[in-house]
Amino acid sequence: MALPIINSIASWILKKRIHDMELFLKYPNEVQEELLLQLVTTAKDTLTGIKYDFSSVINYRTFAERVPVSTYEDLEPLIERTRCGEQNVFWPTQIKWFAKSSGTTNAKSKFIPVSPEALEDCHYKAGKDMLCLYLNNNEESQLFTGKSLRLGGSKQLYEDNNSIFGDLSAILIDNMPFWAEFSSTPSNKVSLMGEWETKLAAIVEETVNENVTSFAGVPSWMMVLMNRVLETTGKQNLLEVWPNLEVYFHGGVSFEPYRTQYRNLVPNDSFKYYEIYNASEGFFAIQDSNYSKDLLLMLDYGIFYEFIPMDTYGTDRQRVIPLSEVEEGKNYAVVITTNAGLWRYQVGDTVRFTSLYPHRIRVTGRTKHHINVFGEELMVENTDKALAKACEETGAEVLDYTVAPVFMEGKEKGAHEWIVEFKKHPADVEAFRERLDLALQTVNSDYEAKRYNNMTLNKLVLNIARERLFYDWLKERDKLGGQHKIPRLSNERAYLEQLLALQVEDGSVA
After folding, report:
1. Is 346 left (phi over 0), alpha (psi -120 to 50) or beta?
2. pTM tops 0.70, yes or no
């Protein structure tokens, strides 16, 4: 069958899903309430369901009164029992897959349960919806005349007792139908390679001669791959390698620090960027229009959402609210109940609602990745925006960064200390530091208040990282590739001190 015909048929099938989405767009709260009751009813005979008497839960209020909000540490004993072969603990269907994730805040591995329902009704459904929304907005797309270059996790799958674990991307690839591999590159064999450097070379070798029309992966690691492609081929930009490129589906870290560099890699104004918000625990939101920075919260993936206002998070005033009570413009920690048996589970992410009908969000950071030592309430969203603005004004380009507080000592005031690795250094480091500090004040009024006349905070400290510093830091911790990411903000200095100690040469300090 000719490729254009395949493209037309695939587009038609995928776009039929738009009509299903209209239900949760029109009745978001009703869809969520009904979904919660379905989850509770399904799990009523599990150990968790019996413990909290799910059989008599009749609405959200009774559910919230009985079931406590939990962290991974709270659920770990039940998860470990399931990993050892016990079933019907927190979900009735067989749980044999576990997405291994340590995130960016904890060296200890987490094993997130992945049920058959989570695979089909959440992750795979979201993958199809991602394509559906893109195709619906781009009628002339020829996406399926070529292949998608996917960059997933760098770990293979492992068997332990009666369970199988590995990166979520490896689990998804291993469970995909055989025909899905025909529309993707590299092959499953290369995608599941364990050693990052070997895998990188193999991906380049397999993909440079393919007709690639889209990318999918984490921006920081995808950029490493893209630069390797240009080095290998001797081309000036990616359109010289793959002239039919249309779109990049990205997630995992903020795109803002990398936006300019990708425009240079793909110098075509019609090339699209579509952001997604997914994690080992589930697939949550998808950009639903061209050139937007807002993501549509997907409400029919077997995930029930709750939110903790960040102005009460971790205090004795902390409260948890359903979707029906969220407000536009406020930061919330995300709590989920899922079709893999995660009951009122704190994901660790923070989001801000940009609209309520429909419910669109922006990911603003991590609950553990913010700085509030001096009452400045600095979020990753703030630092990403400020950094992008400072780069735009100075012509610099950034690869990675992290920020920590400089604690007050005696009469010395506090500050924020940055370490930044540049792809393209600013001509004047002091001017860059000045622009960055002013940009932070523009995007965060609390930081501005603390910086006023150096009342509480002195001007930020800027360390220039040596080449590959962050790469080497991740390599030491066996965190190259996949979903691994640099911790952007911390209320402590541990990450920063580790990076500074790893500097072989003295960084420039402004």
Report:
1. beta
2. yes
Contact 36/60 with Cβ under 8 angstroms?
yes
Name every residue whose Cβ is closer than 8 Å to that of residue 334 and which is 6 or more positions away in sequence: 284, 305, 307, 346, 347, 348, 349, 350, 351
pLDDT, tens digit (0-9, with 9 covering 90-100), for 227-250: 999 999 999 999 999 999 999 999
pLDDT(418) > 60: yes
Question: Model confidence over 45-91: pLDDT tens digits?
Answer: 999 999 999 999 999 999 999 999 999 999 999 999 999 999 999 99
Q: Which region holds residue 9: left if phi is over 0, alpha if psi is between -120 and 50, else beta?
A: alpha
Strands of 102-155, DSSP E? 110-114, 147-150
Please list, residue by residue across 366-380, b when 16 or more beta carbons sit within 10 angstroms of its beta carbon and e when fewer do. Answer: bbbbbbebbebbbbb
> What order do you get walking across the sheet with 461-464 strand by strand?
397-406, 415-424, 461-464
Q: How far is CA 266 from the centre of its chain?
A: 22
Question: Tokens 């003295």 appear where?
Answer: 506
Element (DSSP H or E) covering residue 40: helix 28-42
Q: With bands split at pLDDT 50, 70 and 90, how would you rate the model's confidence at 105?
A: very low
In angstroms, the CA 107 to CA 484 distance is 12
Backbone phi, then psi, for 4, in 5-degree steps?
A: -60, -35
